[in-house]
Sequence to fold (312 residues):
Amino acid sequence: MKKCNQCGFEQEDGKFCGKCGSPLEDKATAQSSESDKSEKADGINQSVSQQASDEENQGSQPQTSEQDEIAATTAQRETTVQNSSSTASQNAQSENDTVEKMKETSKEFWSYFTYYLKQPSHIFAERGNEFTNGIINIVAMLFLFSLSTYFLFRNFMSATMGSFSPSVPFFPIFGNTLFFTAIFIVLVIAILFGINKLFGSEYSFKEIISVYGGHLSLTTIVAAAAFILLLVKANLIGMILIAIVFGLAITTTPLYLISSLLTRKSKSLDPFYGYLIYTVAVAVGFIILFTILADSAVGGLLDDLEDIFYYL
Fold:
């Protein structure tokens, strides 16, 4: 049975429609043709869909890449901010720890200073336990003594030359005074250690420094008083106090320490001869030091003074 696709007329056989004359096809052929058309249409639709999907994927890839870059940059910034915050926090904590240590050290030194100002001989019981505070006390005395010497020299120049007084250099006078006095102190401690090592009890060099520093609280106060008086130009009293400081640090305190150390445990020498040995040793040491250092340091100071007078 054949059916006309144009008018729908059906007939048994023939190639043309008996009604309208249009070519005829079998139903199976028509169905196969329709199936082929449908498959072609489906193939075209799939191709179009695949092409559209590819274009969409190609369009979304740059956008995804940009989003990944933005996310990575943001994460890096957050990490940098966190690291900066952590570093700042550590620095602040370190500064706080340093300040706390300085406060603690200051409190300990003040307690040490006031205690041994009242009872300096108790330092013999502590020996090397107060080494750090002893060093601080020695340095404080040296610093105040050198400052007082500078202001004494400046006030002397101002008093003698009036309005024509030149500017007195700070560092040459302060530095040379500090340097020479520090050497004298080291010499004194070395002589104390040597005499006690030969004739007295067993004290280490560190313990001798601790004992010597523990007896300088009064000397440090006198040096501070001289500095304050010279600031207000009380030159005569300030000069007297400077001399007292030097005498206490170089003569009186060491002689007392020699006597105490040899009295506590003397091997073979009476404390009186310890006095004599110390006096002679200090005198010889000072002569040697002045001979070695006078040409360099004092010569430099004199050159500075010549420069000052040159511009008058």
